[in-house]
Amino acid sequence: MRKLSFSIVFFFAVIICFTACYNDNEEDLYDEYLANCTVESASFKDEVSLIFISKCDRCHSEANAPINGDNINLDGYEKIVAFENKYPGLLVRSLKHESGVAAMPKGEKKLDACNVRKVEFWVLDGMKNN
Fold first, then answer.
1. 8 CB neighbour count, 10 Å cutoff
2. Domain assignment present for 71
3. Domain count, the chain
4. Are 117 and 47 spatial neighbours (Cβ–Cβ below 8 Å)?
5. I need a surface site. Which of 13, 44, 45, 99 has the fewest CB within 10 A?
6. Closest alpha carbon to 72 in 100, 118, 84
7. Is the peptide bond before 105 cis (omega within 30 degrees of 0)?
8. Burial (0-12, 13-18, 19+ Cβ within 10 Å), 48
9. pLDDT grade, residue 39 (50/70/90)?
10. DSSP 110
């Protein structure tokens, strides 16, 4: 009986060790997808605005900018374009977590490469309100 109890405990210990050590992260899992992500167009309405709403609004909406966003209001097309025109390249550099600029979203991992590429394409394509 003692041998059986030891075997059961050992079996569960091995199972726990192998399942508890699962350490994949999104970047490792999707590196190939992200490396092959080709952006040939970017619509503000259908793509870029959704990225800003989901990742930037909690700090940079009109209501939150004075409290959490250093008074940087990126709430909507006009505000985003005005910011990019005032500080050319800063949006994309921040999203890419480049040195010398504040990494955005603040306190979070970098956006996936496809979303960063969409914003970058949109900026380089003239920031159209499409």
1. 10
2. yes
3. 1
4. no
5. 99
6. 84
7. yes
8. buried
9. confident
10. P
